[in-house]
Amino acid sequence: MAQHIPAEVEQIAQAQQLGIPRREYDTWSPSSSPRSCSSMLKLIYPAIFILFICGLLAQWPQLSGGGVQSWQLALIIVFGSFIALIIWSRGGKATTKRFHVYLCSYGLLRLRYDHSDVQVIRWEQLEKIWRRVSTYYPEQEGGKKSYSCKYTIQRDDGIQFIFEGTSDLKDFGEIIEEEVIARFLPHVVELYDAGEPITFGKLTLSQQGVSNGKQYLSWDEITSIELIGDTLLINAWQQRGFAMRVLEIPNVCVLEALIERYHIDGKQADLAFRQPLDSKEQMIWRRRRSELRKRRIARHAQKP
Question: Which CATH architecture has domain 7-31+95-190?
Answer without folding.
Answer: Roll (2.30)
